[in-house]
Design brief:
about 180 residues; mainly alpha; Rna Polymerase Sigma Factor, Chain: A; Arc Repressor Mutant, subunit A; 2 domains; about 0% strand
Length: about 180
């Protein structure tokens, strides 16, 4: 079986045994979701690029702490979250602007008007999400964009599942309220 067809946990178990070639499929598999998560948390594109690389360096450095068959995705995103938290504590550089935090939708065969509408909607939602309190922003990003369960998020952020659900509820309520003028 080709490494790209293997389960994440098995590949990470191979990485834990110092098999570097097993890390590449994981990097390829998680490049988009992980980069998107970091972009949502950090506003500086250059810092985001650095953190993305630091996360996979940390995966290699911490490879022996991975415990098979522990789910890989929450483990990876916990490392990313810790890197983002460290970046928040570090001296800040000015943000590069709203365009650095927006994931443009992948849209094919749409009219120019539909594309403009989708872009504007994405910008509005991204701006509102960035204005959420940090814990709500984190939970919304992990739940909606990364598809993690409440239990996985709770383990990652060191909170109870009830607290995570509460953060999600309040975050979505704030989004709905902020989006009312546009609906």
């Amino acid at each position: 079986m080709h490494p790209r067809d293997e389960r994440d946990e098995w590949l990470m178990a191979q990485v834990a045994l110092c098999q570097r070639e097993s890390l590449e499929p994981l990097v390829r598999r998680y490049a988009g979701p992980l980069y998107g998560f970091i972009r949502r948390m950090i506003r500086d594109t250059h810092q985001c690029d650095d953190l993305f690389q630091e996360v996979f360096v940390a995966v290699w450095q911490k490879r022996r702490t991975y415990q098979f068959p522990r789910p890989f995705k929450p483990w990876l995103f916990t490392i990313a979250l810790n890197k983002c938290r460290a970046a928040f504590r570090a001296p800040t550089r000015p943000a590069t602007g709203l365009e650095s935090i927006i994931d443009q939708p992948a849209v094919a065969d749409v009219t120019p008007a539909e594309k403009i509408t989708a872009t504007e909607t994405t910008q509005i939602v991204a701006r509102i999400v960035q204005q959420l309190p940090p814990q709500q922003r984190l939970v919304v990003a992990l739940r909606i964009w990364e598809g993690l369960s409440y239990a996985e998020i709770a383990r990652m952020v060191g909170r109870t599942e009830a607290t995570v659900r509460s953060n999600m509820h309040h975050g979505l309520a704030a989004l709905r309220k902020a989006l009312e003028p546009y609906l």
